[in-house]
Specification:
The complex is a heterodimer of chains A (about 240) and B (about 325).
Chain A: H1 3-16, H2 18-35, H3 47-75, H4 78-83, H5 89-97, H6 100-117, H7 126-150, H8 156-172, H9 176-179, H10 181-189, H11 192-205, H12 209-238
Chain B: E1 10-21, E2 24-35, E3 39-43, H1 50-57, E4 65-70, E5 73-74, H2 79-85, E6 86-89, H3 101-111, H4 116-129, H5 145-157, E7 163-167, H6 175-188, E8 193-198, H7 201-207, E9 210-215, E10 218-223, H8 225-230, E11 236-243, H9 247-256, E12 259-263, E13 266-271, H10 276-283, E14 289-296, H11 300-308
Parallel strand pairs in B: 3-8, 3-9, 6-7, 7-8
Antiparallel strand pairs in B: 1-2, 1-4, 4-5, 9-10, 11-13, 11-14, 12-13
The chains are: A mainly alpha (about 240), B alpha/beta (about 325).
Chain lengths: ~240, ~325
């Protein structure tokens, strides 16, 4: 359980470097509060429709924090120092990923709590919504590992913009149908739109697992790929 | 240069270890043995291959060919066993800047599997030794460069490693901080095996039991600082402080002595034999006012110069 000591350090840093928390939790709340006011003129902008997308947008923010923590430790050579300790690759991967799980949970609770105060309703199985979103959040942490293993601390925020844009264009704040065309096809090939769409369908239409199974496995498949690629790239960094 | 000592009593042994980065050979077939308890210095200019060698010994870089053992464990076959007996203070300060000094020390002790109470006890001792006790609860982000460097060394010591790698431990420090770090390193001498990389020749000279001079990835000389200096002891260095030194006077001297270097307020002459009157009798008629002359002791820089034709500081 030595990885817990390193995980503890990373967890502390998330809270001490509070700017990342502001982006991950406070900014999505502000966005939810602002966007739901458009609900008076456009029915899409109601808390039930908006919350899943904004939760996923918050995951993108959390992935920024995770890749920056890893990139910072790489740039400062702290990671090199840590890598000379008798820890396995799995220990490191857990230590850099696990601290974000409580952040993800906190983010989901706070966002759904805020949505609830604004009139959010879940017609279907709330556990299913949480399952979809949680799997997607692990995928985002995997993306953070990939970016943090490849890019420097200064380059990471620039590279992360791709994740941010893909999340926004996956229907985080608006219906994907509005975009249409080639972009819609690209977004449908990626997991983010599936996670948002499936969570939205369960919440708004009350559909069951069988109706969103394809979306769920799509998200799960990508999450496995992101995490596996993150592990592969990190392992390569361990002994170059 | 190959050192063929084999057998027990060696903390580190390398066997033709090399590392290439595409077409660039950073470390080129190094063979050396470091005795247990020895303070061994790798001395060389920037880019000589010192850090690459250390990174291979710390299992952070895979050798392109050859291998090494640390306390009998092969760095490639058994990196986990190697990591249990080593610790490193990298060239960069490599500290968790958002944590305080105690938390940094706990982190390093913890991931090395040292019991919490022991880490606490050692942390107290190390903070005291490094003069950081008073500011140990402050975030290290606020520390000066010297304090960060001392903490970095303390972090490498908290696991009480059998073999300690110090990669350029005084890089970028002011002379006063550098001297205090030297004192801490000197206190560790004999207690554990230390490999110190540096491009400061005074550092290697003052601290090391033995020095390997490394250049372009190869070890070009190996021995105690005294042995290395004695190997070029037939070379004398005279420092002449003078006024009215003209270009013609210096060029003329260069015809008598092959190495004449301009320094502040004078010249430095290097030769196998320097006759005091040869210098004075040549310069005075040229209108040069000689203020002082002195013979300087041979340094490791001179050794490096003799071996490579260039200065260590270049």
């Amino acid at each position: 359980m030595r990885f817990m000591i390193l995980a503890k350090k990373n967890f502390k840093e998330i809270f001490l470097d509070y700017i990342s928390l502001v982006f991950a939790i406070a900014l999505p709340i502000v966005m939810l509060l602002i966007l739901q006011t458009f609900g008076r003129v456009e029915s899409f902008f109601n808390p039930t429709n908006l919350t899943p997308g904004i939760v996923v947008f918050g995951f993108a923010m959390i992935s920024l924090s995770s890749c920056m923590t890893l990139a910072r430790d790489r740039d400062s050579a702290l990671l090199s120092r840590l890598l000379t300790a008798p820890l396995s690759a799995n220990d490191f991967i857990l230590a850099y990923s696990l601290p974000y799980v409580p952040v993800v949970i906190m983010h989901i609770v706070v966002l759904f709590g805020t949505g609830g105060l604004l009139g959010l309703e879940i017609s279907g199985n709330a556990g299913l919504v949480l399952l979809i979103l949680f799997v997607m959040s692990i995928g985002y942490i995997g993306l953070g590992m990939i970016l943090g293993s490849v890019f420097t601390y200064k380059a990471v925020p620039i590279a992360w913009q791709a994740v941010n844009l893909l999340t926004i264009f996956s229907g985080a704040w608006f219906s994907l149908e509005i975009i249409g065309g080639g972009i819609q096809s690209i977004m449908n090939a990626l997991p983010f739109a599936h996670a948002i769409g499936a969570a939205r369908d369960v919440m708004v239409q009350g559909v069951g697992f069988s109706d969103i199974a394809t979306d769920f496995y799509w998200v799960l498949g990508y999450t496995v790929v992101f995490v596996a690629l993150g592990i592969f790239l990190f392992r390569r960094r361990m002994m170059e | 240069m190959t050192e063929s000592i084999q057998g027990n009593g060696f903390a580190i042994q390398t066997f033709s270890i090399s590392r290439k980065f595409r077409n660039f050979v950073a470390v080129d077939g190094i063979d050396l043995s470091v005795k247990e308890g020895e303070l061994f210095s790798l001395l060389g200019p920037n880019g000589a291959g010192k850090t690459t060698a250390i990174r291979m010994l710390c299992c952070l870089l895979r050798p392109s060919s050859g291998t090494a053992t640390i306390m009998g464990h092969d760095i490639q076959k058994d990196p986990v066993a190697v990591k249990k007996v080593i610790d490193v203070s990298p060239q960069e300060t490599a500290i968790a800047e958002y944590l305080n000094a105690r938390e940094n020390l706990s982190l390093m002790g913890g991931i090395h599997g040292i019991e919490k109470e022991l880490v606490k006890k050692r942390s107290e001792e190390l903070l005291e030794m490094m003069g950081l006790t008073n500011r140990s609860k402050e975030r290290v982000k606020k520390y000066s460069g010297g304090m960060k460097r001392r903490l970095s060394i303390a972090m490498a010591l908290v696991s009480d490693p059998q073999v300690l790698f110090l990669d350029e431990p005084t890089l970028g420090l002011d002379p006063q901080s550098r001297r205090s770090v030297w004192e801490y390193i000197a206190e560790l001498k004999g207690q554990k095996t230390i490999v110190l990389t540096t491009h400061y020749l005074e550092e290697a000279d003052a601290l090391a039991d033995r020095v390997a001079i490394i250049d372009e990835g190869k070890i070009i000389a190996l021995g105690t600082p005294r042995e290395l200096k004695d190997s070029v002891s037939d070379m004398q260095v005279m420092v002449v402080k003078a006024k009215n030194l003209t270009f013609d006077a210096i060029e003329g001297l260069r015809e008598i002595f092959p190495e004449v270097r301009e320094i502040e307020d004078g010249i430095e002459i290097k030769a196998k034999e320097i006759g005091f009157f040869d210098v004075v009798d040549y310069l005075r008629p040229k209108g040069v006012i000689i203020e002082s002359t002195s013979l300087k002791e041979v340094t490791l820089d001179d050794v490096f110069l003799q071996l490579t034709g260039k200065e260590l500081r270049e």
